[in-house]
Amino acid sequence: MKLDAKSIATRKQELLKRKEELLQQLSVDAVKVTEDDYDAKFPDFGDKDDENAAEVAVFEKNLSMEKTLEVSLFNVNKALKKIEAGNYGTCEKCSAPINPKRLEAFPSATTCMTCKRKVL
Ligand SMILES: [Zn+2]
Q1: 47, part of any domain
Q2: How many angstroms is it from 104 CA to the middle of ligand 1?
């Protein structure tokens, strides 16, 4: 089953929307370093011991959040590049077509289910 232009256009809209959401969330917890790289924010609450402890706790939360968001953003950007290159919906590992249902659920998927299972 091949993806038609209409589905690709729809996926692209979803990906662009997702990208905006991710950038929005990242701007809360992280500082932009480069296009694909963000660093978690280190908050400044004060110099007292409990304030320092609170800073570390927030930083750790930001760090794990930032990592998750960064990976999602990376995948969304990769999928958008594939749309531009005209090979969206093709597995990047085995070149088999990715099930359109899978792309509907995960527009940023760049591998087919078979390859995905191999990785896990
Ligand atoms: Zn594959």
Answers
A1: yes
A2: 17
Answer whether residue 95 is part of any domain.
no
pTM over 0.90: no
Task: Give ion ligand 1 contacts, CB < 5 A.
Answer: 91, 93-94, 96, 112, 115
Q: Which tokens belong to 120?
A: 């896990």
Where in the sequence is the domain holding 64, given as residue range(s)? 5-87
Between the CA of 40 and the centroid of ligand 1 the distance, in Å, is 33
Count up the domains in the chain and report the number: 1
Residue 63 lies in a domain: yes
Q: Say how many Å lie between the CA of residue 19 and the centre of ligand 1.
A: 24
Evaluate whether 105 touches 116 at the Cβ level (below 8 Å). no
Using the Cα atoms of residue 107, residue 110, residue 111 and residue 117 in order, give the sign of their dihedral.
Answer: negative
31-83: pLDDT as tens digits: 888 877 889 999 999 999 999 999 999 999 999 999 999 999 999 999 999 99
